[in-house]
Each structure stands twice: as structure tokens, then as C-alpha cells.
Design goal:
about 350 residues, mainly beta, 5-stranded antiparallel β-sheet
Length: about 350
């Protein structure tokens, strides 16, 4: 596959000027396969925010929601909700398309996870009329793709017909034996693909009214941590016992998106403040020894000037890399995208994870 350079800003490295993005903007807006063939060097993060720019991509109409990292190769993966494709970014900023609509079919990509041992990328998808190439004559489906990490070849898809527009598979957690757990947004139910059964099953219903988003596997494989619209829940896998985590007085952890277990605690990307506001922050949640309570919340970054619907990320070698601006407010339900000048380049930020939880 042809790979192209995007802007990468890392400590001790010089900025690399990569040419004008305008020609690639016009190409990407037509839905052409592949990533843009040029980029512009990213500046350091503005203001006093601790996050810094890791990568900047000029494919402004990508609308990325899911992100994953491969510890074997160091590659990052971004999934496009609008273009039904997954792009790959090497640690030094080289980009290609791992898999597109030709391999995966129509379906915007959401949460992703790398099974490094088995060399598989798991990627949730959902179909809707706002996506490029949408087939409006067939019932829409939501599901999960099993993809060969080396070739981008689709190994298998598991899917169900959508019962409503917001019934979609959202995020993924992996067990050490290869079992896959995934959240379903408006329905709330947790689904599972067993390592031996190799079939999609409804595994655990959430309490009525709870929409599920991010999900993380605990360090010993005993617990899952699931983001609901009102709290973070702990699920004991063996018994399927479900309970919200206790929170310190004044702390708020609802309306979260990506969540990740790291260094004894959780990292979460979440909205905060009054219900319905779009203020965001990245926080570290320290957990009690028995994993039943959040003992403290430490903000790693919030209200960064590049934020525009931050979604998911990945802890990597002492840093947390994450999507800063998915720009979901720039595309309407009928697929109309804001003019190019009202869109922004896609930024991946990173913030240090110094210290324990």
C-alpha cells in the first residue's frame, strides 16, 4: 500500500513542512480512497493546556470516532464514520488506508481494539444514510469487523439489523483469551463474541435508561468498566454482577466516551458541567483497591482550544493519545457536510500520564 507523510510533532524532533493541503482536501471531499497525500506541519499546542499535538491530518471530512494502537508495530488506527474506512498512521507519521469500503462494505467505523497477540483489529461499524455510498434501499445494520492487521483483509463480520437509528455498537474491550465485549449505545445491552463460540450474543442488559459507550477490561480479566450516561459501572465477568462505581462528593463522571484501564486506575474522555453542555476534559480516575469506587479525579486536560467532540484514544508509553476533534456538529442527519472552510484539520493530541493513579 502507498503510504504518505502526515505531520508529526514529537519532542526533540524538528517540525517538517509538508506542503499545501488544498489539493488533497478537494480529493478527499469526493470520497476518494486513501489518506491525503500531503499535510502541514503542526504548531505546538496553543495556550497553557498540557496536551500537545501529536499528528495533524488535512482530511477534514474524515469524522473519526474510533482510535486504536498496535504495541507491536507502533501504528495508530483511525476509523472514519462518514467514509467507512480505517486509516493507519505509523509512529513517524506515514499514513495509508488499511481497509476501505471495498474491503469492509458501507458502515461508519466506531470503537476499535487491537488484539496484538492474534494480529487482529476489531472494529465496530454502523450503517446510516449520512455516510458516503449509503444504500438507502436496504435495512441498516450495526456490527463488528474482524480484520487482519497485516493485510487489511476482512476475516469476518458479525452484525444485527438496527432496531432504531441510535442502536449501534460503540466500543470494544478484549480479554486475554480473545473474547470480545462490546457496548450497544441506545439499547444499552453488552454483547460478547466468545473466543471459542465465535458468535455474537447478547450478554448483559444494562439498567433501563442507561446508554453505554466506552468499555475497558480490568488488569486481571475479572472486571469490565463501562461508561453509562449517568456513571461508570463495574461488571464482574464471572458472575455478571453490575454496579455503578461510588464517586467522591462533587465528582462527575457521566457522559463519558473512551475509557481505558491504566496504571491501576481509569483514563476517561468525558463531557462535564450541566447536562447538554459540550465542555470536555480528559481525566484520570483513581480506584479503590477492590475496584468498587473512584477515590479521586485528576484532570489531565480540559477545554483545549482544539477540542471539537473529542472521542477516543490510547495509552502509549507514558502518554495518552486521543482524537481532539471528531467534528460531529459539522455533519447533519441527511449527510450534509459543512463547507470546507468551516471544517478543521483533524488533530490527535497527547498528554503525559506522569505518576500513578
Amino acid at each position: 500500500m502507498r503510504r504518505v507523510l502526515v505531520c508529526s510533532v514529537l519532542p526533540l524532533l524538528s517540525l517538517v513542512a509538508c506542503g499545501s493541503p488544498r489539493g488533497d482536501a478537494e480529493a478527499s471531499s469526493t470520497g476518494a480512497a486513501g489518506a491525503p497525500s500531503s499535510a502541514v506541519a503542526s504548531p505546538a499546542s496553543p495556550g497553557a493546556n498540557p496536551s500537545e499535538v501529536a499528528f495533524r491530518l488535512p482530511e477534514r471530512d474524515l469524522f473519526p470516532e474510533g482510535m486504536a494502537w498496535d504495541p507491536v508495530t507502533g501504528d495508530f488506527f483511525l476509523g472514519s464514520l462518514r467514509k467507512s474506512k480505517i486509516i493507519r498512521i505509523s509512529g513517524d507519521g506515514i499514513v495509508d488506508t488499511l481497509a476501505g469500503m471495498a474491503e469492509l462494505g458501507q458502515g461508519g467505523i466506531l470503537g476499535m481494539k487491537v488484539d496484538a497477540d492474534r494480529r487482529i483489529l476489531w472494529a465496530n461499524f454502523h450503517q446510516s444514510g449520512e455516510q458516503l455510498g449509503a444504500d438507502l434501499s436496504s435495512p441498516f445494520r450495526t456490527g463488528i469487523h474482524k480484520i487482519d492487521l497485516s493485510t487489511g483483509r476482512l476475516l469476518r463480520s458479525y452484525s444485527i439489523e438496527k432496531e432504531e437509528e441510535n442502536h449501534l455498537f460503540n466500543d470494544i474491550a478484549l480479554a486475554s483469551d480473545g473474547t470480545v465485549y462490546l457496548t450497544s449505545y441506545s439499547r444499552g445491552t453488552l454483547y460478547r463474541i466468545g473466543a471459542l463460540a465465535d458468535s455474537l450474543e447478547e450478554w448483559l442488559p444494562m439498567p433501563e435508561g442507561v446508554y453505554t459507550n466506552g468499555i475497558a477490561m480490568g488488569p486481571d480479566g475479572r472486571f469490565l468498566f463501562v461508561v453509562g450516561n449517568d456513571s461508570v459501572y463495574r461488571v464482574e465477568i464471572e458472575t455478571r454482577e453490575l454496579a455503578p462505581l461510588d464517586v467522591p462528593e462533587g465528582a462527575y463522571v457521566g457522559f463519558g466516551d473512551g475509557i481505558y484501564f491504566h496504571d491501576g486506575g481509569l483514563i476517561i474522555i468525558a463531557a462535564y458541567g450541566e447536562q447538554g453542555r459540550r465542555d470536555y476534559r480528559v481525566s484520570r480516575l483513581a480506584l479503590s483497591e477492590d475496584r468498587t469506587a473512584i477515590e479521586s479525579l485528576r484532570v489531565l486536560d480540559q477545554d483545549h482550544p482544539l477540542y471539537g467532540y473529542p472521542t477516543t484514544g490510547a495509552p502509549v508509553d507514558g502518554w495518552f493519545y486521543y482524537i481532539a476533534n471528531a467534528q460531529f456538529d459539522k455533519v447533519t442527519g441527511d449527510g450534509t457536510v459543512a463547507p470546507w472552510g468551516q471544517l478543521s484539520d483533524i488533530h490527535l493530541l497527547r498528554v503525559r500520564l506522569d505518576g500513578g493513579s
